[in-house]
Automatic annotation (TrEMBL):
Keywords: Endonuclease, Hydrolase, Mitochondrion, Nuclease. This is GIY-YIG homing endonuclease. To endonucleases of group I introns of fungi and phage. It comes from the Eukaryota. Residues 223-316 form the GIY-YIG domain. SUPFAM superfamilies: DNA-binding domain of intron-encoded endonucleases, GIY-YIG endonuclease. Transmembrane segments: none annotated. SMART domains: GIYc, IENR1, IENR2.
Length: 463
């Protein structure tokens, strides 16, 4: 829970807050969340302005804006009394419902009943509290954990000689065809939401990603770009929204690259629950790629403004940022090149790369060059080289033009340890003259990433 503070409290208001804290034996954060349910509180701002002129604010997101503060009125004392009784009523109702639930749950397990009867009664109890829409996610999580603990205590008392692993296999493991506690349906036992994400087409919703992997690929073959949703079956508030120009390719990258944990929040959740506990759905199919990011932003706004989804969403950013049209800086290029240098590909890896480009997989498979292109290629080869018969088979190059010299020449950049550019040389010859090193040493420093005078890196770029 985020810390909060109460600012600009008048003396009489402060006394009432202290009374509430002493009576209910709760802290200010609990009162803060209870006050959010009351009228005359602004839900859509980062800070929450009360009618008395006081502001209850998240400590991490405290903002001040004089325009949004409400003026102090004469009726603030009446409103504080109303708040006090309303908070007291909500809290007593909350405590009473917890006590009622505990009594109902304890009565089920106290009597020596068979497991079939216990399961039926527990399912009725879950449905009973699932229909009550006044509770938040915290209370519903408490119900789920309390039932699980009671089930575990009942099983350990019944089988005192069995170990924990065997008890788990008997009553809690998800075995098909068995009658145990894993059949309890906690999927609907979550904070209720008035909004559900739509389907682009009726056959584009899949409950088990691992089981329906081939069906998802078949369904996505004919689709181009669009917006997709991935959610956890046990807790639908844990969901991820994304857009892709190629939905099939994006789905396969998500499915295969979760072990790399490049997306820390989303992939760590997949590693914890596995793909069998996730669902996949296409929200919208979009033909125009220019509108794709705008539509993704539309759905992200809905996601982050809905209280049900905003707390547990797996999206890190509220904005639909795309790398399209952006370029890496020189420093990031140097970091990427340094990370890849020195890594030698194995023979198996090389064979896999060559096999991936053989036959039909090659980009030029089935294509033929025209006579014009063949003639141009032969003329270029003749002009480039001349054969001299005087000294055996020696090849002499025609003098290159200034344009080709610029294209083929490489500029050498001198970098410090933090990869900041110090000096740039337009050619290798200039770099050798200035740095006073030979050609062999320069190549070895470029290839093996050796420091010059234990201070500088050298990097080559095409002009």
């Amino acid at each position: 829970m985020n810390k909060c503070r109460i600012e600009r409290i008048l003396p009489s208001y402060n006394k009432i807050i202290v009374k509430i804290v002493k009576m209910l034996k709760v802290g200010k954060p609990v009162i803060f969340y209870l006050l959010l349910k009351l009228p005359k509180v602004n839900f859509w701002k980062v800070f929450y302005t009360l009618q008395s002129g006081c502001r209850i604010i998240y400590q991490a997101k405290a903002l001040g804006n004089a325009k949004d503060r409400l003026n102090l009125t004469n009726s603030w004392e009446c409103w504080i009394r109303y708040c006090f009784y309303k908070v007291l009523y909500i809290y007593i109702y909350y405590i009473a419902s917890i006590n009622d639930f505990k009594k109902d749950c304890n009565n089920i397990f106290e009597s020596n009943l068979p497991i079939e009867v216990i399961l039926n009664r527990l399912k009725k109890l879950i449905n009973k509290y699932n229909q009550k829409r006044n509770f938040n996610n915290k209370f519903l999580r408490f119900i789920r954990n309390y039932i699980h603990n009671k089930c575990w205590l009942w099983a350990t008392k019944k089988h005192k000689k069995l170990g924990k692993n065997k008890i788990y296999d008997l009553y809690f493991k998800k075995n098909k065809g068995t009658n145990n506690f894993s059949t309890l349906n906690f999927n609907d036992l979550n904070c209720h939401c008035n909004f559900n994400f739509p389907l682009a087409k009726p056959n584009l919703k899949f409950i088990n990603v691992d089981k329906n992997y081939e069906l998802i690929n078949e369904a996505l073959t004919n689709l181009g770009s669009g917006i997709y949703l991935i959610w956890l079956l046990e807790d639908p508030s844990k969901c991820y929204i994304g857009s892709a120009m190629n939905l099939k390719r994006r789905f396969n990258t998500h499915y295969k690259s979760y072990k790399n944990n490049k997306h820390p929040k989303f992939y760590s959740c997949v590693n914890k629950y596995s793909w069998s506990n996730f669902g996949f759905q296409i929200i919208e199919v979009i033909d125009n790629n220019e509108v794709l990011l705008n539509r993704e932003q539309y759905w992200l706004d809905i996601l982050f403004h809905c209280p049900f989804y905003s707390k547990n969403t797996l999206n890190l950013s509220q904005f639909s940022n795309s790398w399209k049209g952006n370029k890496h800086t020189l420093q990031s290029k140097n970091l990427m090149s340094l990370a890849k240098k020195g890594k030698i590909l194995t023979e198996e890896h090389r064979k896999n790369i060559s096999n991936g480009k053989l036959g039909e997989k090659h980009h030029y498979y089935g294509k033929k060059r025209t006579l014009e292109t063949i003639q141009k290629m032969s003329e270029g080869a003749r002009l480039q080289w001349k054969r001299l018969k005087s000294q055996g088979t020696v090849y002499k190059r025609n003098p290159m033009s200034d344009l080709t010299k610029l294209k083929k020449s490489k500029s050498i950049v001198l970098l410090d340890i933090k990869l900041n550019e110090i000096q740039r040389f337009n050619s290798t010859t200039l770099a050798m003259k200035e740095l006073k090193i030979g050609h062999i040493k320069l190549n070895s420093m470029l290839d093996k990433n050796i420091l010059l005078e234990n201070k500088y890196y050298l990097k080559s770029f095409k002009n």
